[in-house]
Amino acid sequence: MFEQLQNKFARIFKNIKGHGKISEKNISDSIREIRIALLESDVNYKVVKAFIERVKVSAAGTKVFDSVTPGQQFVKIVLDELTSFLTSNENDINLKSSTSVIVMSGLQGSGKTTTAVKLASFLKKENKRKPLIIGLDLQRPAAMDQLKVLAENNNLDYYIEKNTKDPINVLKNGISKSKEQKNDLIILDTAGRLHVDKKLISELNDIIKYSNPDEILFIADGMMGQDAVKSSSVFNESCNLTGSIITKLDGDSGGGVALSLKHVTKVPIKYITYGEKIHDIE
After folding, report:
1. CA 161, CA 224: separation in Å to the nearest integer?
2. Could you write out the DSSP letters of every residue in 98-135?
């Protein structure tokens, strides 16, 4: 997904590196090209504006070093600002020494169920946890069957209840099951809808209030672009997100959702997923 943006930046940098010295016009032209590249990669226009301003300020206030060409220096300024834009202090997943709870939130179609299974498998292997995935998506008929198949195929504990519309009751019973089985990690696969609505947010807040989670993660479809930015903002304001996971990064969209999501929500991107395999998560 990031190849498009990388190729655009490579062309811009190649051009500016070719100049013996950097003038205000060179920088202005390069910044304009960077702006276009980001917008074409589906970065939110407000985010592009904020990023460009940071680059301008850094470029104007930077001392020119004799050891590098001005073109190389400008490339480093852009790289530093991109790194700063995407960096967080709390990148690691927050897990208690006892039983931890992670809530997976997001819109329908973002890949929550698949990501819940990928995350459970990852934390089972990397953090030596014994996870239980509780299926709380009672809106989508196939959700529980999907969770059952994925969990069983990957030797993961799961808890589902059919013929019920009360997610809190399922949650209570699932937590009881986790105590019986001595699971030390509970991942809650919540319901999503095509659009954010009051009922969705209310149900999610009830789940959060009852489960007292260590992490509330927003699952963003990397192919959604601007829609992911809008919905993440609403979820963040309503549910106090602690992080995000961007899915489907093997797709062919511009990749701008990563920059936009981080800037808009101010929460770290904790994982990315790509591909269909259980281990396609980093």
Report:
1. 31
2. S-EEEEEE--TTS-HHHHHHHHHHHHHHHS---EEEEE
What is the DSSP annotation of 158-203?
EE--SS---HHHHHHHHHHHHHHHT-SEEEEEE---SS--HHHHHH
Q: DSSP character for 61?
A: T
How many Cα atoms sit within 13 Å of 4 on the Cβ side? Answer: 17
CB-based contact 208:105 (threshold 8 Å): no
The Cα-based distances of 159 to 175, 184, 187 in angstroms read 9, 14, 10
DSSP three-state, residue 272: strand
- Apex 200 CA angle, 196 and 204, nearest 5: 120
pTM of the model: 0.87
Contact 218, 194 (CB under 8 A): no
Residue type at 40?
Answer: E
pLDDT-flagged residues of the chain (< 70): 1-2, 18-22, 62-68, 70, 225, 251-255
